[in-house]
Every structure is written in structure tokens, then in C-alpha cells.
Design goal:
ibrinogen binding protein from staphylococcus aureus fold; about 525 residues; elongated; six-stranded antiparallel sheet; about 35% helix
Length: about 525
């Protein structure tokens, strides 16, 4: 962290609910990640810019922007043998500290003001969770309680330590329990170097050998001779990382920096999607909208009467008028001949006269007739809405940048399914452009880009391609009035299929035969005069 001293904080983001990302500048840009994840808590320097996750702005982010953004990093302090770093900043609002407590499920990131009081934390800990150490805004910041039952590994009577525990206990468990700064990985490494077995019992260990191996591991604390390594399995997956060679594993290899070692480890154990949090939030909103539309669609379809049922209501009213004198007063049903002289049983309201019963049937007939006329229109709108949401789901799945994810969110907001964030701005991202064998091809990667590709970038004679019967990309081949070779069409058809599919059917027509779907959302079209190309692996 020494290289960061004096750096100015230029940007702060929240990759997820329990992490902070700081972009600092000290002659070059550095990307510092601090995470309080219960399983993957860490502090590391990343090689790539940290991506913004959630769109909401929790209070701690607003306070960090106020106190830390534009501030300079004065110092980074590690309390002796503690799993925490304290970052000291000085900025426009004065001095503050960002305390990173990296303690597994107890991890936390706490912003502390110049008066020593908590400004906020990614995990607010009230008295109901920890009555001895409250971490809430306005409360004095308290350091984690000292580990008084443990001793530093650099000042140990190894003979006494190993004789004071049962010989059958695992050596690594004893070292982790008794010593400060000794993680399970360090403890197993000491055991492996001293005995050849990382899981060896205490009885198999020579105290002098254990002490010598421990001193070897901790020697870089004074001379700085760290050797970052990662341990690999037979498939090349990273099993562990450390600032020393990992002899407890069959295969260990050196890496340039400890941050690189951490990068490789967490890339194997955490989703590689840099926008996973933002993508999940939008996906959840799409799925909720789809569930609502499907339920509404099912309900509306269930209300749709068929033509025979509607005509039956009208005929019952007409028969009651024609045979009103044959209906007994107070009857609950009557048997009357229909137009084919076939007896028909008609239910009645016993409190109504025959004429009133006939009017009731006519009223039901008019209502059902309106339903026959109006419900198909509503069903069509709901089906179009479902198609729109399916398209957004595909857009989200194929989004490669945060801008493209934000465009999907913007479409949802514009359609009224979610509200816009206060800081939202209309994201800008253009369609993908390629040149294949001299022909320019445009590929829309979401609904807005599909609209642009089809209705702004394409000429009437250009070829338009779309996967048949499914949501997906609109693809345009700019023909310029020339015949397009078969191999170009096939490559464009693969672009229309997208990355997930290796085969399928793609419709091809001229742009002149494509028009916007009446009442549809951007990018929704109807087309004709198409030919279908079967794309195979």
C-alpha cells in the first residue's frame, strides 16, 4: 500500500452491498477493492477499473463521496497482528478514517470521522447483535477486542506450546488457536514444512523444526522478501494464495504480486461477471414483470367467451320473449323448443318475470359480445408486452458493458415497470458494426439498438435478418444495391443467432418489408416476404 500514499481519490463505487471500490491517482491509476463479504472478505489492488453494481445510493456511499472523494490518502496503518487496515484521508471536509476489518463473517468497512465517531458502515451493528461493540452512525468507533488468549508467532516457547496440548491434536489446529496472525493456511504450511504433512498431529512434530519453519515464513516482516504464490489443482484452478511458496500443495507457482495472486484465486471462486450485481437487479425486475404479465394474460384468456356461448345467450333471450306465456311464475328453469324444434333447458331467475329474464340474457349477451371484441385486443397487447420483456431478457443476457445493462434498465423504466434512479441519465451505446467481405453489417444488441439498426441505419434494399420466432438481434447487411454473397449472409445469420446458439432458423427479407408493430415498444416489428435460412454448426 506504500505506493498509494499521497494518492488522490478520484472515484468511489459500490460493486455490491458489502464492498467499496476506490479509484486513486498517484502518478498512475490504482483500483483498490475493499470487501466485507462473509466468505471472500479482502483488500486488494485490481488491474481493471472496478464496476459499479447497485444503482441505489445508500447513505455510506453519499458520505464517502462527501468525505473521501477528492481526499488524499495520508497513511495506511495495520494494528499489530490484527486483520484490519486503517486508511487515513484528508479532504475538503477534513480528516477521516476508513477502517477495513477483514475478519471473515465479522468483516466490516467503517467510515470514522475526525472526532472518532462512526459516520456509517456497510454493516450497521446494533446492540441487539453486539451489545459490547455497537457500530452505528454517531457512536464512538471501537476497535475489535484484543485477542489476549493468543501470542505472537515470533516470540513463542515452542517446546512449552507443543507439550501443553494433547499429542493427537492436529498441529495446524493448535497453531491457529494459540497464535496471532496465523491463519489455517499459514498453520498448515508450518506443519507441512516441519513434518511433511499439513495435517500432522502435534506428536509427530519436533518443536525446534516447527519454530524454524515459522520463523522462515514470518522473516519477510523484517526484510520484505515476500514471494507471492498460488497453489493449483490438476486442471489449473487456483486452490489457495499466499505471500510465500505453498509447499503444502503438490503444485505451487510464483506470481508477480500478492494482488495478482488474490485476483487469480477470487476469479476462480467468485463470478467473473464484473456487472453481476447490476445484471441481477435488472433480471429480477424483468422476471417480476413477466410473472405479472403472464398471470394477467392467463386471467384475461380465461374470461374470453367463444362465439357459440355468446349466441346461446342471445337465443335464450329471444326464446323467452317468444314463449313468455308458457313460463310459469317463480320457475327456476323452463324447457322451450329452439329454432330447430329441439327442447332447450333455460335457467331463470325465479324473482323476475319472463320479460325481465329475457332482458337479463340480452344484457349478458351484449357484455359477452363486448368481451369477444375487446379481450382479443387486450390479449394481443399483453402478448406484445411479454414479447418485449423476453427481448429485454435477451438484451440483458448479451449485454457486455454497464452502459448496455443500463439501457435495458432504461427500457424497463420507460415502460413503467420500474422507477428511474435519481442520478440516472440516458445511456448511450451504438450498435455493433462489422465489415465482412466488403459488406458493412450492423447488429443491434438491445431493443433501442434494434430500432436504430432497422429504421435509421438501413436502406429499403438492405437485407434484414432476425432469428425466427424468438427475441434477438436485428441484423442489417448494407447491400448498396448489389447482390450479397451466400457466405456473407450465412455469417450475418450467425450474428443474428447470437453467442448462445450454434444452430437455428433465421428469417431474411429486405428492409422495405419490415415495419414497426402497431402499439409496440421500440425494436418490435412485423415483417413479410421473408425467406428462412437454416444455420447449422
Amino acid at each position: 500500500m506504500d505506493r498509494l500514499l499521497g494518492a488522490r481519490v478520484q472515484h468511489i463505487v459500490l460493486p455490491d452491498d458489502l464492498s467499496l471500490g476506490l479509484e486513486l491517482y498517484a502518478g498512475q491509476r490504482y483500483y483498490l477493492l475493499l470487501s466485507a463479504h462473509p466468505r471472500f472478505a479482502r483488500i486488494s489492488l485490481l488491474s481493471e477499473r472496478i464496476r459499479r453494481g447497485r444503482d441505489v445510493e445508500p447513505p455510506i456511499l453519499l458520505l464517502l463521496r462527501k468525505w473521501v472523494r477528492s481526499a488524499r490518502l495520508l497513511d495506511v496503518v495495520q494494528p499489530l497482528w490484527e486483520r484490519m487496515l486503517i486508511f487515513h484521508f484528508e479532504g475538503p471536509e477534513g480528516r477521516c478514517q476508513l477502517v477495513a476489518e477483514i475478519m471473515d463473517r465479522y468483516s466490516n468497512l467503517v467510515l470514522v470521522g475526525s472526532d472518532g465517531r462512526v459516520l456509517d458502515a456497510v454493516k450497521r451493528i446494533g446492540p441487539e447483535l453486539n451489545r459490547l461493540r455497537v457500530t452505528l452512525p454517531g457512536q464512538p468507533y471501537q476497535m475489535p477486542p484484543p485477542q489476549s488468549d493468543r501470542q505472537p508467532p515470533v516470540a513463542v516457547d515452542w517446546g512449552w506450546l507443543l507439550r501443553s496440548v494433547p499429542a493427537e491434536q492436529p498441529l495446524h489446529a493448535v497453531l491457529t488457536r494459540q497464535l496471532l496472525g496465523v491463519s489455517p493456511t499459514v498453520a498448515r504450511e508450518i506443519a507441512a514444512r516441519a513434518t511433511g504433512d499439513p495435517l500432522a498431529p502435534v506428536g509427530a512434530a519436533d518443536p525446534i523444526s516447527v519454530g524454524r519453519c515459522a520463523m522462515e515464513l514470518f522473516a519477510p516482516l523484517t526484510d520484505g522478501s515476500w514471494q507471492p504464490h498460488v497453489a493449483l489443482d490438476e486442471r489449473g484452478n487456483v486452490l489457495a494464495w499466499a505471500p510465500y511458496p505453498l509447499r503444502q500443495y503438490p503444485h505451487s507457482e510464483p506470481v508477480g504480486t500478492i494482488s495478482e495472486a488474490m485476483d487469480r484465486f477470487f476469479a476462480c471462486h467468485i463470478s467473473r461477471d464484473a456487472y453481476a450485481t447490476a445484471r441481477r437487479e435488472v433480471q429480477a425486475a424483468i422476471e417480476a414483470a413477466k410473472r405479472y404479465v403472464k398471470q394477467t394474460l392467463d386471467n384475461v384468456r380465461a374470461q374470453l367467451p367463444n362465439e357459440q356461448e355468446v349466441n346461446l345467450l342471445r337465443e335464450n333471450g329471444e326464446l323467452l320473449l317468444a314463449y313468455q306465456h308458457s313460463v310459469e311464475k317463480g320457475a327456476e328453469q323452463v324447457l322451450l323448443p329452439d329454432y330447430n324444434s329441439t327442447p332447450r333447458r333455460i335457467k331463470l331467475e325465479p324473482t323476475l318475470t319472463p320479460i325481465e329474464n329475457a332482458q337479463l340474457y340480452f344484457h349478458r349477451y351484449r357484455k359477452a359480445l363486448r368481451a369477444m371484441q375487446e379481450l382479443p385486443v387486450r390479449i394481443a397487447k399483453l402478448e406484445a408486452e411479454m414479447a418485449f420483456l423476453e427481448q429485454l431478457a435477451v438484451d440483458l443476457e448479451t449485454a457486455e458493458t454497464r452502459s448496455e445493462i443500463d439501457m435495458v434498465r432504461e427500457e424497463l423504466a420507460e415502460a413503467g415497470w420500474i422507477s428511474r434512479p435519481r442520478h440516472a441519465s440516458t445511456p448511450k451505446s451504438g450498435p455493433k458494426r462489422l465489415v465482412i467481405d466488403g459488406f458493412t453489417i450492423y447488429v443491434g444488441r438491445n431493443a433501442r439498438q434494434n430500432e436504430e439498426v432497422t429504421f435509421k441505419l438501413a436502406a429499403p434494399d438492405d437485407l434484414w435478418l432476425h432469428v425466427r420466432g424468438q427475441p434477438g438481434a436485428h441484423v442489417i447487411i448494407k447491400s448498396g444495391g448489389h447482390n450479397v454473397p451466400k457466405q456473407v449472409i450465412e455469417k450475418a445469420a450467425r450474428l443474428a443467432l447470437g453467442n448462445a446458439a450454434t444452430s437455428g432458423q433465421v428469417d431474411i427479407t429486405q428492409r422495405r418489408f419490415v415495419r414497426r408493430m402497431p402499439g409496440g415498444h421500440p425494436g418490435m416489428v412485423v415483417y413479410h416476404n421473408e425467406q428462412t435460412l437454416r444455420v447449422r454448426e
